[in-house]
Amino acid sequence: MNPSKQDPLAVLRQAFPGWYIDHDTVLGRWIAMRYRPFTAQEAKAGAKYFLQHACPERLGAALTGQKELARRTRTVP
Fold first, then answer.
1. Cβ atoms of 47 and 71 closer than 8 Å
2. Cα separation of 22 and 52, whole Å?
3. Sign of torsion, CA 52 9 67 42?
4. Are 19 and 35 in contact (CB under 8 A)?
5. Could you identify which of 24, 28, 59, 73 might form a hypothetical disulfide with 53, taking C-beta atoms 3.0 to 4.6 angstroms apart as the criterion?
6. How many whole angstroms separate alpha carbon 15 and alpha carbon 55?
7. In 10 A of CB 60, how many CB atoms?
8. Do residues 15 and 60 make contact, with C-beta atoms less than 8 angstroms apart?
9. b or e along 8-37 (b: 16 or more beta carbons within 10 Å of the residue's beta carbon)?
10. End-to-end CA distance of the chain
């Protein structure tokens, strides 16, 4: 399948498995809710449990930012 014709919901779900991702067709909003709790470092850095955007591209960008935040704040056990 041509990547430009892939279902954006499936693409987001595959790229961000730590999040519940859905598209509300009535409101036209793309939402993501985080599965796991924050670490103390993530909370201090501004991690979010819930994201909402008008298009899948913006939601993907926000999720990428959250993924990067988690990577930067990860502590080694």
1. no
2. 10
3. positive
4. yes
5. 59
6. 16
7. 19
8. yes
9. eeeebeeebeebebebeeeeeebbbebeee
10. 41
Render pLDDT for 8-39 as a digit per residue (tens, 0 to 9): 999 999 999 999 999 999 999 999 999 999 88
Classify the C-alpha dihedral 73-74-76-77 as positive or negative.
Answer: positive
SS (H, E, C) 13-57: HHHCCCEEEEEECCCCEEEEEECCCCCHHHHHHCCCCEEEECCHH
Asked if 37 and 47 touch (Cβ cutoff 8 Å), the reply is no
CA-closest candidate to residue 33, choices 49, 45, 17: 49
pLDDT digits 0-9 by tens, 36-70: 998 899 999 999 999 999 999 999 999 999 999 99
The answer to whether the beta carbons of residues 32 and 26 sit under 8 Å apart is no
